[in-house]
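Troubleshooting log. The previous structure file for this entry was overwritten by mistake, so regenerating from the original sequence record. Sequence copied from the archived sheet and checked twice against the printout by T.R.
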Amino acid sequence: MVAKLTSIGYEFEPSKYSPGLGYSRLRVVISGRPMQRYFDVKTLHLPTFDGRFYHRTQVTRHELAPTETFQACLGELRLDSHRGEQLQAFSFGGVLRATIDQDDLYCELTSNAPIFKLQEDPKWVGAVFFEEIMDLLAEKQARLTGHEDELYSRLAKFEPYPLFLSCLVSLQQRLDSVPMSLRRERYQKVSSNLKRGIQMVRDTDGWDGHAQSLEELLSNGGA
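Regenerated output below.
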């Protein structure tokens, strides 16, 4: 596995869901200078929370202790390569562990909720899902006095998996509220992907379809 990772530069582990709902883990190897890798990662960008404040963290080979751990937040991840390429993904949070081994930095993001690529195959349009969730969060954030820091201090109280279920519930509620006259192409695209995702979670996890909405979760997080 290490040989594959060091030759490619990153690796998404397969999802536990079938036929596939995101990925279960992301591994990245970062070097301080260009290497001959398929995707030669220079920087990993991800949202983190330190217990008080939200950060847009950049992880590089430099400026880290031999081992560091970050609390990843719900949001977008991005890999930048030494050649200027980008790869985008999205997670519901988790733990990022970064360990220096000789000239390389090995990063591993683990989460008990799916991690999605935003350049995705037709079976699950990760970009659509990401856009809808970030719209929901923007609506909630606008109502909070502390904005980003307050939003993420509340979100950080919950594991990624319940956040994932809450987002599924809130997205379904949002779709249900769309008037019939406005249910056009975008609605159909989101609805079909959401329905497929919910069914996979039901089949694999035995989920009964009930969970607190994102709004309810955030209200509890502020308690």
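The helical segments are 2-8, 126-142, 147-155, 160-176, 185-205, 214-221. Archived copy saved in two places this time.
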